[in-house]
Amino acid sequence: MHFFSTRSAAVGKKCVFLHLERDNSRQKYEDMRIKFIINPISGSGWRGKKSIPEKIEKYLDHDQFDYDIVYTERAGHASELATQFAKEGIDIVVAVGGDGTVNEVARSLTHTGTALAIIPCGSGNGLARHLQIPLDVSKDIELINECEIHSLDYGVINGLPFFCTCGMGFDAFISMKFAESGKRGPISYVENVLKTGLSYEPETYTIEDRDGVQRYKAFLVACANASQYGNNAVIAPQASMEDGLIDVVIMEPFNALEAPQISIDLFNKSLDQNSKIKTFKTDRLHVVREKPGVIHYDGEPIITDQDVDIHIEKGGIKVIVNPEAKPLDEPNPLLNAFSEFFNNVNSVREDIEKQSRRVKALNKILLRKLNKL
Predict the structure, then answer these.
(1) Which of 50, 128, 159, 183 is the least buried, fewest Cβ under 10 Å from its Cβ?
(2) pLDDT score, position 284
């Protein structure tokens, strides 16, 4: 994973932030102020987080940072705290929790001088997984000590910021069902998908970008700033948070026999190779739907009207990243084999359907001729 943006580097035991101004000057921060915002009930709950303060005290570089720990008390509290800390000029705010906590904090830090860091403790951890932030608290603190800060992109849908994905269609519908169920985690997600997936009716979308206007009948339209939804479900394998572009993923309608291959490709980082997927990159788009309905931004559902506007904010948020992050792994050979199997099954089925249509057409011709006798 490569980044070409405003960045920082760890020099000796001090974090040095390199902000390249017009005069190429460098501004140096020592004894940086850092706040840890812990959501005690997200993901694994307090039982899984009660050791985090001890680990912060043990592993954080105290020669480099002055730190405080605060706990959220209600929904939206993380956002309030992060906004306050950014106004106070705090150098780094660490979101300790699941995707909801991370997104609350991140939305409050856009276009500020305060950097986001992540200690992922949720069920999906979409942004952390994309950035290859370890699911290990001590390693996360080591990354904070290295203090590699990059200015990354984020997206906006109808005025609402998102950092991984947004969209409409089936994924937004499932986000709504997910929120209504009150359950979290991959099992609940799969349960909702299996219950409603094959009965969901695709919609027609009119999509306008800088290259013109196209109409699509689609199962979903996803817009990705990062590569995945979470839980390693990779919707856009080629997505980057530093290219100033959104990866638009259009999933065409599919049937029950095609569903297993799409599922495998989603978790095999090869969805862009599926015949039911169309993709393109753009920095902004306007979508007109058949009727008002639900959209989602990083899995948060909301009802909007027919018109949906999406654009990218290039380099709009500073984030502590993993300097050792690598490109996505190659697709798994075993999953590739399964995908190829289902693809072959579908090809055979399509051939049988074509032959069946030909036979029916010949039968009609013969019947017409027999009727003339």
Answers:
(1) 159
(2) 97
373 burial level (CB within 10 Å; 0-12, 13-18, 19+):
exposed
- Which strand (E) or helix (H) includes residue 144? helix 137-146
pLDDT in tens, 263-315: 888 888 888 999 999 999 999 999 999 999 999 999 999 999 999 999 999 99
Q: What is the pLDDT of residues 96-139, one digit of tens each?
A: 999 999 999 999 999 999 999 999 998 889 999 999 999 999 99
- pTM of the predicted model over 0.85: no
Amino acid at position 17, single letter: F
Bridge partners (DSSP) of residue 95 are: 37, 118
The CA distance from 335 to 319, in Å, is: 33
CATH superfamily for 7-156 is Probable inorganic polyphosphate/atp-NAD kinase; domain 1 (3.40.50.10330)
Q: What size, in residues, is the chain?
A: 373
* 3-class DSSP state of 235: coil
- In angstroms, how far is the first alpha carbon of the chain from the final one? 73
Select from 3.40.50.880, 2.60.200.40, 2.40.110.10, 3.40.720.10 the CATH code of 160-313: 2.60.200.40
Residues 38, 49, 1, 334: is their CA dihedral positive or negative? negative
- Please name the residues in contact with 290: beta carbons below 8 A apart, sequence gap of 6 or more: 203, 204, 306
